[in-house]
Write a structure and sequence with these properties.
Structural class: alpha+beta
Pfam families: Peptidase_M48
Helix content: 55-70%
Number of strands: 9
Subcellular location: Cell membrane
CATH architecture of one domain: Alpha Horseshoe
Main location: membrane
Organism: Ideonella livida
GO molecular function, one term: metal ion binding
Strand content: 5-15%
Length: about 650
């Protein structure tokens, strides 16, 4: 199996090959795809013939034959399920021509101009996006339905021309040989991923047979498919330039970048803030509200900064879409702040149908987020209760340093910014100047700094910058490097804002570039340190972690609510190759309950669910990686040290 670093290097090498010989690269990738399908066919044939031979031709040894026949049939069933790719359920609300005739007229015109097939279904959802998907009626045999996914926020935030450019890009994926080849790559990869999902974590014959393909073929085919998909994205942009015009696509791209950040940083946080006091989303109509606000997002005070962030951002290594800079350069268009649309696509194309469609999507949204909303409400109420208890202990002078620090974290989350600033300052002054408190105090000072500060505020800003610089340079005490990168990032962001707003206030013209370089260095150090701490070969430096109960309170509640958790151990790991760095290990031992979560992915569920104020990894001891013979001693250490156990289910 390739590591992330090896995968990125392989993708970079394939990108060079694709640029130097694009036709050859495409044909070789096609051969890889064909080889994958052929391997599936051979596996299926071998499994069926093996079961037939063992059942009819071999005599005696009934018990062993029965086990082997069951293994062959298990492999055959898994391959059949992988070949018969089942598309995920549609997310959103299917709309018809009678509900939005003008929208369908635009779709038909753009599809005809792009010489692409018209979509069989149009699905409206709550995403600020558009996309096409192929849904096979006959699995790998094809006969696809073309589904166009349109986000209602997309229609609410751009004009008709910009929407047409986005549609032209998406229809580029359905056009001619592009459509066939793209779909073939997609289906081949889906087949292998499905087969891997079915067998990951199983200790049986079929798993042993196909594991070599999972570890060798799939990541290498993925790297090739990723490069080819990126080329297809460029071709889709070029088609949109011809069909609608590069100016309209450029305006659509810049508008979407600003609106996406507005939704992520302003709109949806404000909606979810209501879950602090409201136990259910019933009655909320966020999409109705969004229709009035999204069109003006390009006039938001932060719009210019958001657009600059998008311009500077590098594309995700796993994303097929190029970055904004590359797409605008391909279009031959400059980076400029777009004007709000005079008339949105929703107003022009949905007209009187907008309200009923918005009502339907709001009800759909309520059902989709209801469970997460209720969980958020319960968590928030629990944290509010804990904050009250810790506030009382602080007022009585009984709080420990750990309790004061956790009280500041909760204050930062639950209370107004001024209270959070005061709480961090108290912890910094009274409890040994912990780096976390210094970082958050400095961040709060800069976040609350006005455009025209008075003398006291200027002093506070200078102190905050000095504190961030000190934190970004300190690397020796244990646990200290964890705070270097966020401190350097916040100082860099502040200097960039100051340079854009008041360039004369920066005395050193090289300060911004110096801190940009410092951030890059710290990012590299962090990646290297986390890579070292994530290795478990050879001797390990481990000790039972000592974490205050107030920090673990929420995590322990989560463990109690999961019947599959038998015991949890918390360890502290260090490594001389990463001086000063600390990684906490949350080690989960399964209970004896009959129903258990998937062995290969439960750790990811907990990594996403747990909220702990330090770097940590989740180790599920039921995962195949921890059932290997060379790790038995380490597993015995994890589970055999009572001091490391933070939770044990009764009768586990």
């Amino acid at each position: 199996m390739l590591t992330d670093k090896e995968f990125r290097a392989l993708v970079a090498r394939h990108e060079l090959d694709a640029r130097s010989a694009p036709t050859r690269f495409a044909w070789v990738t096609a051969l890889w795809a064909a080889a994958g399908l052929a391997a599936l066919g051979l596996l299926l044939t071998a499994a069926l013939l093996g079961a037939l031979w063992l059942g009819l031709a071999v005599q005696g040894w009934w018990g062993l034959r029965l086990v082997l026949v069951a293994g062959c049939l298990s492999l055959a069933w898994a391959v059949l399920r992988a070949i018969w790719v089942r598309p995920p359920p549609l997310v959103g609300d299917v709309i018809t021509r009678t509900e939005a005739p003008r929208l369908f007229e635009l779709i038909d015109r753009v599809a005809a101009r792009c010489r692409a097939p018209r979509p069989d279904l149009v699905v409206l959802d709550d995403a600020l996006n558009a996309g096409v998907s192929l849904r096979p009626r006959l699995g790998v045999l094809g006969w696809h339905r073309h589904v166009l996914h349109l986000g209602l926020p997309l229609l609410m935030g751009c004009d008709v021309k910009a929407l047409a450019a986005i549609l032209a890009h998406e229809f580029g994926h359905l056009r001619g040989s592009h459509h066939w080849f793209d779909g073939w790559l997609y289906r081949t990869r889906r087949s292998w991923v499905e087969l891997a999902r079915l067998h990951d974590g199983r200790d049986n014959l079929s798993h042993l047979v196909v594991s070599v393909f999972f570890h060798y073929y799939l990541p290498r085919f993925d790297a090739r498919a990723l490069v080819l998909s990126r080329q297809m994205e460029v071709a889709a942009d070029q088609l949109a330039h011809v069909a609608v015009g590069p100016t309209h696509l450029a305006r659509a791209l810049t508008t979407l970048e600003i609106q996406a950040r507005y939704l992520q940083q302003t709109f949806w946080p404000a909606v979810w803030a209501q879950a602090d006091q409201r136990p259910s989303p019933e009655g909320l109509r966020p999409l109705q509200t969004l229709g009035r606000r999204l069109r003006t997002a390009t006039g938001h005070p932060q719009a210019a900064r958001w657009l600059q962030q998008a311009w500077k951002a590098l594309p995700d290594p796993q994303d097929t879409h190029p970055g904004l800079r590359d797409r605008l350069e391909l279009a031959g268009q400059p980076l400029q702040l777009p004007e709000p649309p005079a008339q949105t696509a929703a107003e022009a194309l949905l007209a009187e149908h907008t309200t009923p469609l918005t009502d339907r999507l709001d009800r759909w949204w309520q059902g989709r987020v209801s469970q997460d909303w209720q969980a958020h409400y319960r968590t928030r109420q629990s944290r509010q209760q804990q904050w009250t208890q810790l506030s009382q202990r602080l007022a009585q002078g009984e709080a420990t340093a750990d309790e004061a620090l956790h009280h500041a974290r909760l204050t930062d989350e639950l209370r107004p910014p001024a209270e959070a600033l005061a709480a961090w300052q108290v912890v910094w002054q009274r409890h040994g100047q912990p780096p976390e408190a210094g970082l958050h105090w400095a961040q709060a000072v800069l976040d609350q700094a006005p455009h025209s500060p008075d003398a006291d505020q200027v002093d506070a800003i200078h102190t905050a910058c000095a504190r961030l610089a000190e934190l970004a340079a300190a690397t020796t005490p244990p646990g200290q490097p964890h705070w270097c990168l966020p401190a350097a990032q916040r100082l860099r962001d502040w200097l960039e804002q100051l340079q854009a707003r008041q360039p004369e206030a920066i005395t050193d013209p090289q300060a911004v570039s110096i801190w940009r370089q410092r951030v890059r260095e710290l990012q590299s150090r962090r990646e290297a340190a986390l890579d070292v701490l994530g290795q478990f070969e050879g001797p390990q430096r481990l000790e039972a972690a000592q974490v205050h109960a107030c920090v673990l309170r929420e995590a322990l509640h989560d463990f109690r609510s999961e019947p599959g958790v038998g015991a949890v151990y918390l360890w502290r790991k260090t490594d001389p190759r990463a001086p000063g760095w600390v990684m906490h290990l949350v080690v989960i031992e399964r209970s004896g309950t009959w129903l258990q979560a998937a062995k290969d992915s439960w750790w990811a569920h907990w990594l996403d669910r747990l909220q702990l104020p330090f770097d940590f990894m989740v180790l599920d001891l039921a995962h195949p990686a921890w059932r290997q013979t060379d790790r038995r001693d380490l597993v015995a250490l994890f589970t055999g040290t009572p001091e490391a156990c933070i939770y044990r289910r009764r009768h586990a």
